[in-house]
Amino acid sequence: MAVLAAEHISKTFGSEAGAAVGVQAVRDVAFTVDQGTFLAITGSSGSGKSTVLHMLGGITRPSSGRVVLEGVDLAGLDDEQLALLRRRRIGFVFQRYNLLPELSLAENVALPLELDGKPRAFCREAAMAALEQVGMDHRADHRPDSVSGGEQQRAAIARALVTKPAILLADEPTGALDSANSKNVIELLSKLVLDDHQTVVLVTHDPTVADAATRVIQMRDGQIANDTALPRTTGVAE
Amino acid sequence: MRLGHLLVRQWAMRPGRALATVASVAVAVGAVVATWVAADASRSGYRRLTEAIEGAPSIEITSEEESRFSIEDLPSLGDIPGLRAIIPLFYRPTLLRVGEKRVREIAMGVDCSTLVDQGLLTLAEGEPCIAPDEVVLDQGLAASLKLGVGDEVLMFARRGIKRMQVTGLAESASLATFSAGGGVVVEIAALSDMSSALGLVDRVRVVLKPDATRSQVLEAVADRLPASLSAEVPAGRASMAEDVLHAADLGLDFVTGLTVAMSWFIVVNAMLMNVTERRRGLALVRLLGGTARQLRHTVLVEAALLGVLGAIVGAGLGLLAARPIAAGIAGALNAPLTEFTYDPVIVWIAMLMGPAVAMAAAWWPAREAGRVELLEGIAQAPPPPARGVSLKYLLGAVSLWCIAALILLAVLLELIPPRASVPAGTVTMLAFVGITPVVLPWVSSGLVRLVPRCWWIEARIAHEQIMRQPVRTALTTGVLVVAVSNGIGLGHAIRDNVDNVLDWYDGWMQADWLVVQAGALGAMPPQAGPDAAAIDTLAREIPGVAKVEAIAVATGRAAGVACVVVARDLPGPGSGLPLDAIGLDETEAREALERGDAFVGTALSQKTGIQPGDEIAVEVYGRTTKVKVAGLVVDFMSGGVAVHVSREAGRTLFGLDAIEVLLVTAVPGQAAALQEPLEQLANEHGMLARSFAEMQSMIDRVVQGIVGSLKSILMLGFVVGSLGVANTVTMNVLEKTRTLGLLRSVGMTSGQVTRLVVIQSILLGAAGGVIGTFGGITTALFIQISSQPLLGYPVQMSLRPGLIALNLGAAILVTAVAAWLPARRASRLDLLQAISSE
Ligand SMILES: Nc1ncnc2c1ncn2[C@@H]1O[C@H](COP(=O)(O)OP(=O)(O)OP(=O)(O)O)[C@@H](O)[C@H]1O
Ligand SMILES: [Mg+2]
Q1: Does the pLDDT of residue B80 top 60, yes or no?
Q2: Is there a single domain that holds both residue B654 and residue B554?
Q3: CA B96 to ligand 1 center in whole angstroms
Q4: Which range scores top for mean pLDDT: A138-142, A147-151, B379-383, B673-677?
Q5: How far is CA B621 from CA B80, B203, B516, B533, B625, in A?
Q6: Which of A52-61, A146-155, B582-591 is predicted with the least confidence, judged by mean pLDDT?
Q7: Which residue's C-alpha comes closest to atom 27 of ligand 1?
Q8: Is B791 contained in some domain?
Q9: Please, what is the angle between helix B344-370 and helix B15-54, to 10°?
Q10: B420 occurs within a structural domain
Q11: B288 to chain A: which residues are within 8 Å by CB?
Q12: Contact partners, residue B561, CB within 8 Å, separation at least 6
């Protein structure tokens, strides 16, 4: 069953502002993502990877085409509904600046639940569980600036998972990490896909990161150049 | 409040930012409280000043037909708000005899002991008169008759001679409210009985509470009266300060209005910065699924909390600051502050204002917070804010001006009262602040050129940073624009008015000595006696006197309006006319006066619509005579509600010969020698001799007091402005931590960073000063124009470069000083922390 579908989405920047020629970042991209897929989107810098991911997550709206998440057309939602959708059904992990510096790791992780108005005790418990899942529960009450970059990213993943989202979107989550930390994060993501059947879409230009995926879409000049399903030894259910 | 703990954490982590916001609100609220209390203190100071000159504010009820009426005809008025006392008055000319001395006096019948109890009549000595054979005398009169408490005096009445005992001496100033120039107080029933007129009164004086509005009470009283009675504002003696007071009062309103506007900018600015600085965090929350509503609420709740805190601190600071200011003002007005009182309502309003303004100010940033670009949260570098401002902004400013112009027009056409020009002035000010972001680029790039070459880099970056945030910069500058316009505008308006009054006095009174009547003007002719009119002749006979001019004054009505009728000797040809006739040259005016024509004060013309060429009915001493109006005069006597004629015409047309003022000029070198003979002459006629220097210094004191009081309030404006700027610059530095750290890391020295911050601040100060100068000139025009209906004539406005330079200099100095601490802070940034911060 397709969790997520990108139906011929395109994105042109600058055309709204009335510029004569807009930058066409993404051109007619179409694909579907099934439950439990670990999809890696790769491509050179400027090829439109992040833009695609932002459209999938409802951060930006496509200039044309549509994104359907769990049967819901994102184009039909207003900004507030999109916020609710991001809060409940989508988890984000970015390259940097994922965490609010004022809050402890546990509070950062609990934030989406807090926003949703869940009882405080429940939020705390869920946050601790998510941190445990990523192996960060021992640093729960530390501030982001007192843990390493890799640990910050794991906390960010915990936060993305805390709402049990339909899909986890990650944009270069290892971009600011060294190879050891990077490996650590990728292993964590793989484990989520394998053990919990979590759907993950990850943007990267690092081939070793892409190797962990079950499917790789390669982009060039805003278009899909290649779409390969990788046979996984562990055999993730399709 | 789900994001509450986020707020608390943010405050804990960045106490500086939260404190700066609280400080902004505190400064704003404190400014409003201090200005308000100080303005109140000034007003009550002005009131005491006017009261000292013309008595407590009151309304007079008189009969339409006969001179006396039965007290039974007076309806009950006690429940009308704003009344302090209702005083029936009975006057009777009388002759006093003490030994061989005889004095013509007006005896006044009042309920003496009640007046004393109510504090309306102050006895310097002794007790109020109660029994029919008791009398209270004016202190000055008693002194000239060499009488004291317990002495006896003979009073001539219709029923023969009465022996009266002096029970008390009244302070002259406190008598001014009731006396018709008389200094003899008798129990009202006793006096009316002496005249076989028991139960009748000449008039009823209704004394108002200090905070009552005279026109409102007048209307309410007039509504109750039967047709036979009428109520009006009593015509008083020349109250020289009144016009200055009017302008000053309007000025106070302006200052208060503008302080509110200034506080508003300070708070909006603080709130805006508070939000912009956290954009990245807010965007991240939004990205994680925080709704725009949630963010808006968070920002508003924060504003309310910081607002409450700021209001509490601010109200306390404001009251602390107000105390010395009020004392200073009272001192300047020569009305010592006996006790520091303030209306607790002010504090309550301020307390409510804090959070309300903070929330209102946060509304826009809150909306912005709800609308942050989601990608900002994860962007490597936050996007630079858009340069320049929209057309919408400009249109907004222009329409504000149009609104202000319309209000001003309505004030000029007298569709609305002059006070309405205060909000209009504030709106104009807002418009000036509104166009600030539009003109700021030009002003700033112009000013940058003035920075020395060696600081070129700092200046360029400073300018660039200003350009990047036009709205924010405009708000910071706005505080200064308001402070400078305030200073320049009010400074001009006050000086122009004061100069106007002083010029008038110079023309009106040129003499070495003045012999004047004490107390209020009479509405009935003084008993004609053998020596009644002879005082000017007697004065001329004194050796050493070069010139004597007499001015006779009485109250009357012109075109149905109560006014003062002034009849004055015409000086010989060539020595100038004491009248400032509008549009007529001296010869023409002199001819008109010699013909027996009248000149009408501008305020009276404004009130009645009398125009040159009209023939008007003037009633004096109950006799109506028609006179032709030759022209209008600018006049500060009785606030311009006056009819002027030559002394000759006054005598023949109106039978007016009550000499009010005698101007005596001495032969050069003889001025001092005249003191004794003039004092003696004055004494014999129940008048006071004053040296011109004494008079001049009294006028100066009043004028200085008023100017001083306004100055201290203006100073307050500058202090608030500088605090606001200091706060904004501090927040600016806090917000730019990252940028400044980056600059440092690429090799900017700490000295350069300091200069960068200071130069930026000075650029803002100078820009605010330049824009404020235009705003100030507009404000000055505004006050002039809007006080025109009040004064009845246009006040000349002249530009005062000194005043402008002073204000500009103050603005620049204030910003330079305000930037110093934040600049130090910026130069000492921990590099690592700076570049890794958020
Ligand atoms: N907000 C924007 N306005 C204008 N152009 C944009 C904007 N965002 C992206 N672009 C342009 O769209 C194209 C695709 O950008 P995108 O960020 O998706 O690339 P990417 O594949 O993620 O690159 P990288 O690997 O460097 O992150 C680029 O040419 C970029 O310059
Ligand atoms: Mg990218």
Answers
A1: yes
A2: yes
A3: 106
A4: A138-142
A5: 31, 14, 21, 17, 11
A6: B582-591
A7: A45
A8: yes
A9: 140
A10: no
A11: 86-87, 92, 111-112, 115, 159
A12: B604, B607, B608, B641
Structure tokens at A234: 């562990």
Q: Tens digit of pLDDT for each residue in B774-797?
A: 888 887 777 777 766 655 556 666
Residue of A16, A21, A23, A201 to test ligand 1 pocket, by largest number of atoms within 8 Å of CB: A23
pLDDT in tens, B61-76: 877 666 688 888 888 8
Contacts of B836 in chain A (CB under 8 A): 145
Confidence of residue B1 (pLDDT cuts 50, 70, 90): very low
The sign of the torsion formed by the CA atoms of B114, B118, B122, B126 equals positive
The confidence score (pLDDT) of residue B832 equals 59
Tell me the fold of A2-229: Rossmann fold (3.40.50)
- Asked whether residue B396 is domain-assigned, the answer is no
Residues B197, B146, single domain; the answer is: yes
What is the CA(B186)–ligand 2 centre distance, in A?
A: 100
- For chain A, give the number of residues: 238
Does position B838 have pLDDT exceeding 90, yes or no?
Answer: no
CA distance A182 to A161: 19
The ipTM of this complex is 0.78
A59 C-alpha to ligand 2 centroid (Å): 14
| CB contact B534 to A (< 8 Å) | no
**Containing structural domain, residue B474:** 439-510+698-838
Q: Do B749 and B457 form a contact (C-beta atoms < 8 A)?
A: no
pLDDT at B787: 65
Residue closest by Cα to atom 16 of ligand 1: A48
CB A29 within 8 Å of CB A6? yes
Whether residue B41 is found in the same domain as residue B86: no
Amino acid at A106: A
Interval A17-43 mean pLDDT: 85
Which of chain B's residues have a Cβ under 8 Å away from the Cβ of A79?
292
Same domain? For B747 and B821 the reply is: yes
Tell me what the mean pLDDT of segment B451-467 comes to.
81
At which of B198, B227, B256 does a domain end? B227
Residue closest via CA to ligand 1's atom 18 equals A48
Who lines ligand 1 at CB under 6 A? A 13-14, 23, 25, 43, 45-51, 205
Sketch the domain layout of chain A as residue ranges: 2-229
Residue B775 and residue B835 in one domain? yes
- In this structure, are B559 and B484 located in the same domain? no
Which range has the worst mean pLDDT, A197-201, A219-223, B563-567, B736-740?
Answer: B736-740
pLDDT at B454 over 90: no
- Contacts (Cβ under 8 Å, ≥6 apart) of B595: B630
User: Where does the pLDDT of residue B337 fall: very low under 50, low under 70, confident under 90, or very high at 90 and above?
Assistant: low
Q: CA-CA distance, B46 to B248, in Å (whole number)?
A: 9
Record: contact B280-A59, CB cut-off 8 A? no
Q: Could A100 and B290 be called an inter-chain contact, meaning their C-beta atoms sit closer than 8 Å?
A: no
Look up the pTM and report it: 0.66
Domain count of the fold of chain B: 4
| Distance in angstroms (rounded) separating the CA atoms of residues B222 and B203 | 14
Instruction: Tell whether B494 is covered by a domain.
Output: yes
Q: Using CB atoms within 10 Å of the CB of residue B375, give its burial: 0 to 12 exposed, 13 to 18 middle, 19+ buried.
A: middle
Instruction: Tell me: do B702 and B818 sit in the same domain.
Output: yes
Burial of B628 (0-12, 13-18, 19+ CB in 10 A): middle
What are the tokens at A26?
């993404």
Indicate whether B556 pLDDT > 70. Answer: yes
Q: How many helices (H) and strands (E) does chain B have?
A: 25, 22
Spell out which residues of chain A touch residue B285, defining contact as CB-CB under 8 Å. 100, 111, 115
- Domain end: B658, B685, B712, which one? B685
Contact (Cβ atoms closer than 8 angstroms) between residue B500 and residue B247? no
Structure tokens at B121: 């009549």
C-alpha A49 to ligand 2 mean position (Å):
6
